[in-house]
Amino acid sequence: MLSTMQDVPLLVSRILQHGMTIHGRSRITTWTGEAEPHRRTFAEAGTRAHQLAHALRDELGVRPDERVATLMWNNAEHVEAYFAIPSMGAVLHTLNLRLPPEQLVWIVNHAADRVVLVNGSLLPLLVPLLPHLPTVEHVVVSGPGDRSGLDALPVRVHDYEDLIAGRPTRFDWPELDERQAAAMCYTSGTTGDPKGVVYSHRSVYLHSMQVNMTESMGLTDRDTSLIVVPQFHVNAWGLPHATFMTGIGMLMPDRFLQPAPLAEMIEREKPSHAAAVPTIWQGLLAEVTANPRDLTSMKQVTIGGSACPPALMEAYDRLGVRLCHAWGMTETSPLGTMAHPPAGLSAEEEWPYRITQGRFPAGVEARLVGPGGDVLPWDGESAGELEVRGNWIAAAYFGGVGAEPVRPEDKFSEDGWLKTGDVGVITSEGFLTLTDRAKDVIKSGGEWISSVELENALMAHPEIAEAAVVAVPDEKWGERPLATVVLRDGATADYSALREFLGGTIAKWQLPERWTAVDAVPKTSVGKFDKKKIRELHRLGQLEVTTLD
Ligand code: ADP
User: Fold this and answer.
1) For position 165, what pLDDT does the model report?
2) With bands split at pLDDT 50, 70 and 90, how would you rate the model's confidence at 190?
3) How far is the CA of 436 from the centre of ligand 1 (A)?
4) In the annotation, is 531 catalytic?
5) Phi, psi at residue 177, to the nearest 5°?
6) Of 21, 289, 439, 443, which is the active-site residue?
7) Cis peptide leading into 154, omega within 30 of 0?
8) Which of 66, 77, 178, 331 is catalytic?
9) What is the Cα–Cα distance from 502 to 516, expressed in whole angstroms?
10) Using a 6 Å cutoff on CB, does residue 357 contact ligand 1?
């Protein structure tokens, strides 16, 4: 028997209309580096999104399903693009500006982007790529920047403001099928070619609702979120869409992502929430340790993208800022888990829950699969690969224009679950602890050593700023851990002392013999430890390694 309920498609245009009317007074504040940031209400940004859609269709001829790329920082114009492009039936394609040039070229060509919206400050990055991007016909430039490099190129150049000025302020949004593509984002390609994940209107809508649930970020129009996680990195964790649902103010750092301006932004604008990867919070911690600032407006901070070292969480607790750990991936939109402890616990009892990756929301089903393919129990001990499924989880990757989606066997199970490549355990209460990425696990003499556990233990040492542990070949054991550490200024501990310190929490056979100190741990385009790079430096003999007895 069918229900008697209405079936209204879940569309991005509905989120836009809701935000610009019901929450028209909420604001997007964009940092400019000048005395005053730029402020625009949701009503104004929404109206400009209507005008942008008109410009894209009426002037640039953008058709339904066509990919429109953005190469932009987090700012009000990027939010306008976020709503205009999917609402008109085209596909928002966010480009990760930190990728190596050859990967960006590969991605734009694979998606066959015809239009690129770019911040003027990023033209030095785009201009040299354009001769290799035959599908790109239009470049729309927003904000200041030297545009002269575009003159000699066979593209039509538009100024964002001129392009939208005077356009009709109402676009008749099409009634799309909610399963149609709304946006796409390529994984950062740390292994092999980048893979395109294509989000639907339905997945964006449902994911935004989840972001807004109390068990996830749970913010309202009384909040302002400092959105540091880039809009080109898994849709800024879904925040720009979610904010238009509930009226959360957005504080956008634009290109001012260094610790000092971030500290200033927080002290001046007093956001109640923020979202960023651990690297950002490590940098900010060093900054406010040297130059104290009041960060206490931030009642909640969402931290994820890589494991949050417990020592970092403790350091922020002391500053009066609570970090809440979250896990997700490009393929999961990204919200997978969040680590809110169950109700009714003391601070001390909450701690073991807070340092996990968190628990799954109702919309995400999870299972652990052991090396032999068995589904493992949630007993907090059995470690296996995490597989997930749900309404905002990818079922396949973009196969190229006109081609079928692809479902590589190592990424999707036969029964359609996403294989995350993450290894961990789940407790009977559904709290996930990741011990490693499958490819980063250290296989020593038939046993597994968790690189993450060693890193967390090292980063709890007061003289260590950062630590990354990778597997290196070993004649006797197959693989052994190499500890790569960044020592704080004035550090006096030697490697033996550090190993002894680790011995306090780590089993003896897991303690690294090989040690190296570097100025900074190499990072990927989205700020994670680049272990592939470290392994390569080691292989090429470019690290000065000390081996302890
Ligand atoms: P890429 O796979 O290219 O690094 P993603 O941003 O999609 O790009 O990364 C997803 C991966 O990041 C996850 O599979 C997981 O390994 C890691 N990750 C994300 N959040 C966490 C977290 N809280 N703790 C540990 N690892 C995390």
Assistant:
1) 98
2) low
3) 10
4) no
5) -75, 130
6) 443
7) no
8) 331
9) 15
10) yes
HSE, CB side, 13 Å, CA atoms: give it for residue 164.
23
pLDDT tens digit sequence for 372-429: 889 999 999 999 999 999 999 999 999 999 999 999 999 999 999 999 999 999 999 9
Question: Could you tell me if residue 497 is inside a domain?
Answer: yes
> CA 259 to CA 282: how far, in whole Å?
9
Which CATH number belongs to the domain containing residue 483 in this structure? 3.30.300.30
Burial level of 382, CB count in 10 A (0-12/13-18/19+)? middle
Question: How far is the C-alpha of 72 from the C-alpha of 11, rounded, in Å?
Answer: 24
Distance 523 CA to ligand 1 centre (A): 13
Whole-number Å distance, alpha carbon 306 to ligand 1 midpoint, is: 5
Instruction: Name the CA dihedral angle for 125, 130, 131, 137, rounded to a multiple of 10 degrees.
Output: -170
Q: State pLDDT tens for residues 140-170.
A: 999 999 999 999 999 999 999 999 999 999 9
Indicate whether residue 304 lines ligand 1 (CB < 6 A).
yes
Give 528's contacts (C-beta < 8 A, 6+ positions apart).
277, 279, 305, 306
93 has which bridge partners?
Answer: 69, 184
Residue with CA closest to ligand 1 atom 6: 329
Task: State CA 42 to chain mean position distance.
Answer: 24
Minimum-distance ligand 1 atom for the alpha carbon of 526 = 6
Mean pLDDT of 464-468: 94
The encoded tokens of residue 196 equal: 């395109």
Cα separation of 212 and 205, whole Å?
11
Distance 424 CA to ligand 1 centre (A): 13
- Structural domain including 448 reads 440-547
Give the count of domains, the chain. Answer: 1
Q: Is the CB of 216 within 6 Å of ligand 1?
A: no
pLDDT > 90? residue 443: no
Residue 45 belongs to some domain of the structure: no
Q: Which of 30, 70, 94, 187 is catalytic?
A: 187
Determine the Cα angle at 73 with ends 167 and 114, to 5°: 55
| Bridging pattern class, strands 273-276 and 224-227 | parallel
User: Ligand 1, residues 422, 423, 530: which to mutate, most atoms within 8 A of Cβ?
Assistant: 422
Classify residue 501: in a domain, yes or no. yes
What is the three-class DSSP state of 422? Answer: strand
Which amino acid residue places its CA nearest to atom 25 of ligand 1?
307
pLDDT at 438: 81
Of 346, 343, 352, 288, the C-alpha closest to 325 is 352
Cβ of residue 526 lying under 6 Å from some atom of ligand 1? yes
In a domain, 520, yes or no: yes
Among 333, 351, 383, 329, smallest CA distance to 528 is for 329
- Inter-residue contact 357 to 424 (CB < 8 Å): yes
Query: With contact defined as beta carbons under 8 Å apart, do 183 and 94 qualify?
Result: yes
CA–CA distance, 41 with 24 (Å, rounded to integer): 6
Closest CA to 45 of 152, 159, 169: 169
CB contact at 8 A, 95 and 104: yes
